[in-house]
Amino acid sequence: MVNNAGVGLDLGDEIPTQELMNATFATNTTGTVLFTEAFIEFIQDGGQIVFLSTAMALLRNLAPNAPAYRMSKAAINIYAVMLSQRLADKNIRVTPLHPGWVQTRMGGDTAPVTLEKSVNGIYKAITENTQTGKFWNIELDAVEEF
Fold first, then answer.
1. Upper half-sphere CA count for residue 106 (Cβ side, 13 Å)
2. Is residue 107 classed as helix, strand or coil in its secondary structure?
3. pTM for the whole structure
4. Distances (CA, A) of 113 to 80, 107, 117, 121, 135
5. pLDDT tens, 65-99?
6. Cross-strand partners of 100
7. What is the rounded distance in angstroms from the CA atom of residue 125 to the CA atom of residue 142?
8. Which of 144, 142, 139, 129 is nearest to 50 (CA)?
């Protein structure tokens, strides 16, 4: 299962607003968590759940911009770790990952990571990363500490 929900409604902002916090958390966190919970029973033992997150949500990378985006993705990272512990007995791997700053509508044309590089990195994280509950950064091609 790959969870790719994400909006960055406040990427250029520093002051959080109720409207942007609610809308961002509804998509990036609440919707993702509830969607995942609804489908867990269909994931076979040995399966995997992947969350596209962002390195912007790691404590060492915090900055004043994009408060709703950063906090909502940090919440997904925490949920991923909690879920990995909950599903450990079923050998279901949970992988939160940073797909890079990608040349998409959200990332923009000047983003340094091509769609192809990001997709290849995501594939590698899914197929080669054997750890659960660890944050995978495709730009580093490795597990990164939260």
1. 16
2. coil
3. 0.91
4. 24, 9, 6, 10, 18
5. 999 999 999 999 999 999 999 999 999 999 999 88
6. none
7. 8
8. 129
